[in-house]
Amino acid sequence: MKLYSLSVLYKGESKTVLLKAAYDVSSFSFFQRSSVQEFMTFTSQLIVERSGKGSRASVKEQEYLCHVYVRNDSLAGVVIADSEYPSRVAFTLLEKVLDEFSKQVDRIDWPTGSPDTIHYTGLDSHLSRYQNPREADPMTKVQAELDETKIILHNTMESLLERGEKLDDLVSKSEVLGIQSKAFYKTARKQNSCCAIM
User: Distance (Å, rounded) from C-alpha 45 to C-alpha 38?
Assistant: First the structure.
């Protein structure tokens, strides 16, 4: 999973203005980096121009996904990531960046701003922090931990089966289970014998 670009733009009536952008083009060759960065800027502006106010969308371009969020106040954000990057995390990042940007940069400066005149320094740190969505986003981290727990549980059941122990033998040898519990287990086992245990 990789984030390549994070941009803040203003959707004007006649044109879209790039206000601030951060790029991670380290995975491209040195000679391609400036062209790739220009293409990401062009793509971000084009997507914002073609998107309506108050909309969120994800646009696929080859193996990349461009996530765009255009607010009703014409402030817009674009994340360009690989196709594996979770969309929910990308939109969480866009919402956070746009809220932060609108609090730090005066609205009067949006239509006439440029990356050189806008004083907002949060994009690089957000781009770096959100490279790993599990670390940056609490929900993704919790989901990863749940998936990991499932794997551990599945591995535990498989390891029990690998040792060659049968549950029937364990039940019959058990000193904790009473005679009625053992009888109940045998009866239930007979009735469920048509079903396989997953």
Answer: 11
The chain-wide mean pLDDT, for the chain, equals 78
Return the number of other C-beta atoms located less than 10 Å from residue 45's C-beta: 19
* Domain parsing of the chain, residue ranges: 3-136, 152-190
Superfamily of chain region 3-136: Longin domain (3.30.450.50)
Which residue in 33, 59, 34 sits closest to 46, CA to CA?
A: 59
DSSP string, 34-66: HHHHHHHHHHHHHHHHHSPTTEEEEEEETTEEE
56, 76 contact by CB (below 8 A): no
Residue-wise pLDDT for 17-47, tens only, equals: 899 999 988 888 888 888 888 888 898 888 8
Contact between 122 and 159 under an 8 Å Cβ cutoff? The reply is no
| CA neighbor of 80 nearest in space, from 169, 183, 179, 9 | 9
Assign 2 to helix, strand or coil. Answer: coil
Q: pLDDT at position 129, please?
A: 86
**Number of residues in the chain:** 198
DSSP 108: G
Tokens of 84: 């594996």
Count other C-beta atoms under 10 Å from residue 3's C-beta.
Answer: 26
Q: SS3 for 19?
A: strand
Instruction: Summarize the confidence of residues 99-127 as an average pLDDT.
Output: 85
